[in-house]
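Field reference: sequence -> structure
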Amino acid sequence: METQNERALIMSPFVPNLIPDTALYVCPEGKWSPLDSGEWPLIPFAYSTWAEEELSWYDNCYIHSGLNPFLFFDITGAEYLDLLSAVSVNAFDNFPVGKARHTIICNEEGKLVLDGIVVRRAEDEFISMCLPDPALLNRMAGNKYSFVSESSRCKRFFYQLCGPHSLEIVEAATRQDLHGIRFMHTMDAKIAGKDVFILRTGMAGTLGYEVHGMIEDALSIYDLLLEAGKEYGITQLGRLGYVNCHAEGSIPQVAEHYATPFDPAVFSGSLPRDSGLIYRSPIDLGWEKLINFNHDFIGREALKTELEGHHNTMVHLIWDKADVLKVISAAFEAGNSCDIMDLVCDFDYVRNNGGIHIDAVYDGGKMIGASSGRMLSAKTREMLSVCTIDQDYAVEGKEVEVLWGNPGTRQMRVKAKVMLFPYIKKDRNEHFDVEEIPHPVF
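Structure field:
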C-alpha cells in the first residue's frame, strides 16, 4: 500500500511544463487527487502578478487550466435526466441537445451538497461537471434509472477563457464563426483538426467561453489558444486570479465562499463555528430563481418553507477603506494579536480550497450575515466580498459592519456598504450582444 512519503508528483498533463522559468508549482484547484496513473499533478501557481492576471477579464482575456483534472462523468441513457429531476432543484423538461444547465443538489435540509453543470451532447448522451457520481446517485435511489456512466476526469480537458476578446480568440483558434453560441449553449468545432466543443459560460462575469476536448489533444490545443490570443494580449491565469474572479464575477463558489456537508473544510475568520451559515441553501446564495417547485426533489419542503418565510439573500459588501487601513496598520503595533489582513485575498496557502475564510457581519450587536471571498479589485481598487445577508439588509448602500479576526484574537470591526449583485454590471456574459464584435473572415 502506498504511503504518504511514496506519493509521486508529476507536472500536470493538462498544462505546459514551464520549468525552469516558473519555479512555484501547486496542486490543481479543488480537491487534490491522483491521476489514473496514481501520480499527483502539479500546476504553476502564477504566471504574472496577481493584478495583471486579474485585469485580464476586464481588458483582454485570460486562459485558465487549473481545474483539470475535473470531476467529469460521461453518461449514456435519457433516464439520467429523470434521476437529476429527482435529486436536484432543477427541472429538465426543456433541455434540448446542445444546452448546458447549472444543476443544484441539496440535502433534505435544503443545504447545498454540490452544484455543477450538465451538458446534453445528444438525445441520450450527457456530460456532468462537478456533480456526484451518477451511478452512486442511482444506487442511493434504488437503481430505478437505466443509464450507463463512467468517470472521464482523466480523459477530458477544458480550458476557460474569459474577457472581452474571448470570442475572437476562440474563433481564431477554431477558424469558425462562433457568434451563434448563446449563453449556456454549446457548439461543436475543430482546432487543428482535433474535435472540441465550445461552451459559452464563464466565472468572472464578463464574456467567456470554455474549450472542451480529449486529454491526448490538451497541450497542443492549449498552445494553439495561446498563439491565437497573442494579438489580443491573452493572459494565463494563476491560482489567486482564479480564486478572486468568482467574487468579482458575483458567482458564489463552493470551497471558496461556503462549505457543504458533503465536503467539510477548515475554517478561519470570525464566523462562529456553530453558525448555520457555514452551509448554505440556494436561497442563501441568491439562486432561488433556479429552483423549480413543480416537481419532487430532495430538500423541496425545506426550501419552500425557507423561501416563503423571512430569509437571506446574496449581496456584495464594499469594505470601508479607512477601516481596512486601520486593520492593516494594527500589524505594526507591538504585541498586536489581530489577524494580519492580506491585501490580495484570504487564500489558504496550506490547504488551498480545503480552507475557507468566513467573517460574521453585524448590525450593532445583531449578526445578520456571513462574508467571504474578500479581495482587492485590481480594476476598481475596492475591497469587496460576497455576503449572505438577512433580506432586510439587501438594500443598496446600506451600512453594516464586518467583524475581522478569528475567535480568541483581537477583533476589529470594519464598516462596509451593501452593493446588490452583480458587481460587474456592464457587458455581462449572459446578456452581452456578441453582434457588437465583428464576425471573423477566414
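Note: The chain has eight helices and 21 strands.
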